[in-house]
Amino acid sequence: MRHKKKPNDQRNRLFITQAAYVYEMADIVLEILDKIGLEGKKDIEALYQDYQQKIKYRNQEIQEELQKINQAEETQKIDKPYADNLRGSYQHMQRANEIGLNAWQQVMDKVQRQDNWVNQTKQMRTRIELKRKQAQLQLATLRDIGILKGTIAIVDNMEEWVNNVGNMELWVLDENTVRQLIFGNTQLKRTDLK
Fold this sequence. Notes:
Number of domains: 1
CATH architecture: Orthogonal Bundle
Strand content: under 5%
Number of helices: 5
Structural class: mainly alpha
Oligomer: single chain
CATH class: Mainly Alpha
């Protein structure tokens, strides 16, 4: 007797598959959340602070040099075109330093946004843990439902099975049948076995 698959069996498999999928995905996401982080953030912050310090001291030196240029021009140690050339060069350096600081600020803003994203993502951990537990408990419930379904099928069919087994006739194992089972269809005489 063969058990026929019912449409309900497909639905049960779908529920089990979906719960197993949610459980496994939650497990993977939690593992990633444990490992996710913004590597090198402290190194980048240290480089930025170092850069800011260097620019601060460099701008102070530039200001001192500009004062020296002005004094040298006033005392006529250098002429105006030469002084203007030096001042122009230092102004370009100051602008380059400004651009560098702005670029660093953009980098730090991006690092902060990424760090905020990592922190927000990690805050989802509780939701994921709760969803994984829900899927685990649903799988256990579905397993128990499957056991119950099988038990009901056994109990419901027991009377039929008892009657079927009780009324079955076994085939007779006579000498010819035994010879055929052992040697196949070859015709052997009784004397061949003696």
